[in-house]
């Protein structure tokens, strides 16, 4: 970090997601900005991730189900469906179609915004990337096939419009020369019938496409969330919450749209282009050549634009993720923000990220402006040449006025279709850009599988714990080993107190025992089984954790107590609450056990949360218990209540207690003092106090360990 100059730091602050890799190299930063950011991952993300997952992992699968249930199911029709335009009168249709050539869309905003040039790394489109994206639509093949069938019908109707209009104009023309009026009436009636069929087909097509799209998005979200839930804890150290949430919320929609709406629109464009050119060739091959002259340049512009959009999309999604990250963290910790009066700064920080998205949007707007301007101009020039050349042909009686009208309309249709195709291409590229990140998550296989391996039979499971020569550094900080050679033993049913300075690795002992991480070397054994051989979910179910900052989930008190044992009866829940000294305060709430605890239990006091966590652990009834400074954040009154509850909880279990209270430590069977990545002293209280120059004695004397 030292080598990063002030300017580069400004760039980083302004656009953390878009630092070009070349610059990273020059600054000696890791190439991926993701891993750069990881150096700044704050403890507030990792700590809840640890303790939140720490209780047991079987709730992981439950969370997946909950999430799946909350994901909107397919079949709901949402807004924003564009009707296929089918103008009725030749003149207004003509205008509408010609007008469609010129929608120069651009984003406008305050001129004070600085334009930044982002270095966009070149990207290649590989075959597999594309087929994988399209593969998402496979389960919807039937729905999509029906939609395509309906598309053929509605497109056929649409494509019949110009031809019919030409005929009608010729009929009207004939009538002015003394023809029969009856033909006009019949022809119009027939057309109305055909249009009604077209409308019905259009309705069906849009409903089908929407259904397929929603199913794909829902499935993608479910798979993604399921994959996220299974990731190693280290994954959550590396990836920020808001980023991951953005993948779930935004990227899935972009991808879902790319393979449904977009494909449908693309097919419609193909159909319009093919039929349109076919009809034109049928009516006048000569005039058709005039139209075709315009197609290749438009295609070239479209491909260039599409590539650009793909790269841009990846950046926009990244910047959006950054913005979501900031918002998510600040909103969920609004109390801290308020206490520090940091609202304006946080708003500014968020603005900074939004500004990046905004600037990228402006860039896209410029590109889109050029694209639409150029294609619109090309289309209009084509119209003019058609009128000029077609007019000439009409004068020489080569074609009728009706044919010229039909021809003009077809060429407008073809023009719109070509633009539609190029939009299809750019939307596809957008989908590819967004899907890359999804594949990264879906493909990353956790190194610690949730459930594979041995389960110790209940009657042979005692809960003896051994750490043998464990060396460990957190994956995100490989150069800062927490343990170099840690060995400790907890005989079954005994209590081990782990003491040491803050940051000495006490909580890490718990994390390793729960197998949130695997040691770099050495072994951790439970009942002489290496934890690597044991089924991790099963093993975690046998371990209870009460941490300093217990995490509750939004829901009722009863739900939170039953988190580790979902099938518990209300009597069991109440019994656990009584033992945890939590019954009294719970029943004093007007809603009792049905009281909502608020997000992360924030509407409860620290001591109340703590006792609910103890009740949760009691109900889970684990063989092994980890108490991580479970009383350190409490006042004397609740500490007494919690302490009493903890003593009940500890009975008959193997316990690792990380404590700062002398009374707890004194009651332990063994005390292990951590220092320098290993156990520097261990023994009973009396033994350690007897060491004249002992570390433990120093801790007690310096009152690092509190006396009461
Ligand atoms: N998720 C994490 N990623 C990287 N480093 C961590 C993580 N959690 C803890 N650490 C670091 O590991 C060391 C030991 O932490 P910990 O076990 O929490 O200490 P304590 O003894 O205070 O409980 C500390 O230096 C801490 O900064
Ligand atoms: Mg700790």
TrEMBL record:
Reactions catalysed: biliverdin IXalpha(in) + ATP + H2O = biliverdin IXalpha(out) + ADP + phosphate + H(+)
Keyword Amino-acid biosynthesis: no
InterPro entries membership: AAA+_ATPase, ABC1_TM_dom, ABC1_TM_sf, ABC_transporter-like_ATP-bd, ABC_transporter-like_CS, P-loop_NTPase, Type_1_exporter
SMART domains xrefs: AAA
Keywords: Acetylation, ATP-binding, Magnesium, Membrane, Metal-binding, Mitochondrion, Mitochondrion inner membrane, Nucleotide-binding, Transit peptide, Translocase, Transmembrane, Transmembrane helix, Transport
ABC transporter domain mapped to chain residues: 465-701
PROSITE patterns for this protein: ABC_TM1F (PS50929), ABC_TRANSPORTER_1 (PS00211), ABC_TRANSPORTER_2 (PS50893)
Annotated Gene Ontology cellular component terms: mitochondrial inner membrane
Domain annotation ABC transmembrane type-1: ranges: 145-430
Membrane-spanning segments: 144-164, 184-204, 289-308, 369-389, 401-421
The UniProt record lists the keyword Mitochondrion: yes
One record GO biological process: oligopeptide export from mitochondrion
Localization in the cell: Mitochondrion inner membrane
One Gene Ontology MF term: ATP hydrolysis activity
Membrane topology type: Multi-pass membrane protein
Function: ATP-dependent transporter located in the mitochondrial inner membrane that catalyzes the export of biliverdin from the mitochondrial matrix, and plays a crucial role in hemoglobin synthesis and antioxidative stress. Participates in the early step of the heme biosynthetic process during insertion of iron into protoporphyrin IX (PPIX). Involved in the stabilization of the iron transporter mitoferrin-1/SLC25A37. In addition may be involved in mitochondrial unfolded protein response (UPRmt) signaling pathway, although ABCB10 probably does not participate in peptide export from mitochondria.
Family as reported in the entry's similarity comment: Belongs to the ABC transporter superfamily. ABCB family. Mitochondrial peptide exporter (TC 3.A.1.212) subfamily.
PANTHER family for the chain: ATP-BINDING CASSETTE SUB-FAMILY B MEMBER 10, MITOCHONDRIAL, ATP-DEPENDENT PERMEASE MDL1, MITOCHONDRIAL
Listed name of the protein: ATP-binding cassette sub-family B member 10, mitochondrial
Originating organism: Capsaspora owczarzaki (strain ATCC 30864)
